[in-house]
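From the pipeline queue, job 12 of 40. The input is one protein chain; the requested action is below.

Action: predict structure.
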Amino acid sequence: MKYLRQFCVILLFSFAGEVLQRVIPLPIPASLYGLVLLLGALCSGRVAVEQIRESGGFLIAIMPVLFVAPCVGIWEQWEWIAPRLPALLLLIIASTILTFGVSGRVTQALCRGREKEI
């Protein structure tokens, strides 16, 4: 029953993200709205990590399986992708490098902040 309750909390934020995506006319995915809402609830203390820890861990563990359907959808669009492949690969490589750089800088800043606290 504990896992069901935890999963329902996650689904509630996912549903709220779907509602926001329909209400706010921005090109932002509903899942991103849901994640931001959940992050806000976790940071503000409205939701404790213990309320979603096991179900969240399970969803992270099966994440590769969750990407199978989108990958199949991408291959179904190969005729559209093939002529644009060089530009897409360049974009993917550049965004990956940018993500690594920003993530590294943020991690370093957080580690420095913790060292100052101690």
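Job complete. The chain has a mean pLDDT of 92.
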